[in-house]
Amino acid sequence: MHNKNSSRHETRKRDQIFLLTSSNPDPNPYLTPKPLHSLSPTPNPSAMNSLQSFLAVAPVKPAAAAARLPSSRRARVSACLATPAPAPTAPAAARRELSAASRAVMADEAKYIVGTYKRAQVVFVAGRGCKLYDIDGREYLDMAAGIAVNALGHGDPDVDAAAADQRGRLVHASNVGYTVPQVELAKRLVEASFADRAFFANSGTEANEAAIKFARKYQRVAHPNGDAPTEFMSFTNCFHGRTIGSLALTSKVQYREPFEPVMPGSTFVEYGNLEEAKKVIQSGKIAAVFVEPVQGEGGIHSATKEFLQGLRDACDEAGALLVFDEVQCGLGRTGYLWAHEVYGVLPDIMTLAKPLANGLPIGVALVTEKVAAAIHYGDHGTTFGGGPFVCHAALATLDKIQKPGFLAEVTKKGEYFKQLLKTKLGGNPHVKEIRGAGLIVGIELDVPAGPLVDACLDAGVFLLTAGKGNVVRLVPALIVSEKELEQAAEVIRECLPALEASTS
Ligand SMILES: Cc1ncc(COP(=O)(O)O)c(C=O)c1O
Q1: Is the predicted pLDDT of residue 270 greater than 80, yes or no?
Q2: Same domain, yes or no, for 172 and 311?
Q3: pLDDT over 60 at 333, yes or no
């Protein structure tokens, strides 16, 4: 199915692989990432901290980096550095050896950063397209895209140019005055969706906090006698964020319990259980129902039309608002601009974030006029939200995602990928299900996915987990090529023995 590339293309690709040291300039900035040393500030021996000193070292020649490794590991590393990747000859469970540079960054992280993240054992310093590069010059096929963020891949030339252009004019001015990119972005989002108005924030959780507050305020205005419903309903396996309000709607107990009391008045119902959901909504206590049309963190579960339509009807009857959290599944990831489009069901509020500015922090709550009418000056706000820099980058991102044919390609690649994975992995006894929509794909296992994800990292493919840690989550950039999808599927297949090693 994939386009067999010409040898000229292969040569060009190989040039890219050695891009981190290349002195052979390519006129296309997308194909010519900066050398490693140019990513760091000018070395100043007296001022450099240890991280800077690693970034400032002479660029590592990938081949040389591989040569420093024990011979048993060279094949695997060179597989990361050269495409097409030669088929590994040994099971992919062999670990990469961490360089002194990587270990030093990890040690400083452990010393200076609050320990909220159990990180993958890799230090990324550069990215181009669907490739990431570590501090030693190794290349990784990025099937995570910054957790479904870099929709157009790393270093998209048009988004970069838009950001550079806006950076030169105005980066921040607050919401005290008007700024052009914010208004333009709101108009674009409204014109492309069910919504009438937008509120800009800086992240997914903040977009959901806005939705929570707007729902409360809407109900207060709709019930002037003081009997406004104030509670919320969400679903098992859902993820809506980590701030106290969004956290109260996030199902994972481990995320909530250490911080209780979180916002009171939230009820969780099994995702897809319409009858239970209706009972809760009909109680009359629910201000709004939060639901992801396709759950990401929770393990890649898609809603059915009947479920979303049933929620819509029950909310309409009870006067509750319906909020679609499309922070992860929205903006083209499912092959539709909005994940809910395929169901033909519309929300009152939709929250977006991750891919909207292709990596710059942004969040937005899109609302209907009936919701917006309840919100007045001073009801909500943010210093950074909707700044001109990020909004200008978001407009450039939208330009590409909305280009005719772009979303059809996402659908086509998603179907191809799922089929490939089914063919290559379907026979493995640990693989329970391969599911998803467009380029949000999950491989559910009957064992923890961690060892497989680690083995794939060693083999040069960067993946995420989801669900209860038993799902491999694949959310590559939407520009990923069929060839890259084939490479990912093949490496996952080759690394499956890591699951045996972990269960024996
Ligand atoms: C569906 C959904 N909602 C909200 C969030 C929170 O977004 P953020 O991490 O930007 O606060 C996430 C993050 O993964 C998400 O997947």
Answers
A1: yes
A2: yes
A3: yes
Residue whose entry in the numeric block shows the structure tokens 């009972």: 279
In a domain, 147, yes or no: no
Nearest atom (ligand 1) to Cα of 246: 4
Beta bridge pairs of residue 291? 324
Range of the domain at 310: 158-401
Which residue's alpha carbon is at the smallest distance from atom 8 of ligand 1? 204
Ligand 1: distance of its center to the CA of 267 in Å?
19
pLDDT in tens, 167-210: 999 999 999 999 999 999 999 999 999 999 999 999 999 999 99
The C-alpha angle 59, 62, 66, rounded to 5 degrees, equals 125
385, 401, 417 — which closes off a domain?
A: 401
Contact residues for 258 (Cβ-Cβ < 8 A; gap 6+): none
* Nearest ligand 1 atom, CA 203: 10
Dist. CA 69–CA 64, nearest whole Å: 9
Task: Please state the length of the chain.
Answer: 504
Higher per-residue confidence, 70 vs 318 = 318
Q: Which residues pair with 200 in a beta bridge?
A: 364
Contact residues of ligand 1, CB 6 A cut-off? 147, 203-205, 208, 239-241, 292, 296-297, 325, 327-328, 353
Mutate which of 240, 333, 351, 475 for ligand 1 pocket (most atoms within 8 A of beta carbon): 240
Three-state DSSP at 396 gives: helix
The total of structural domains in the chain comes to 2
Same domain, 335 and 206: yes
pTM: 0.84
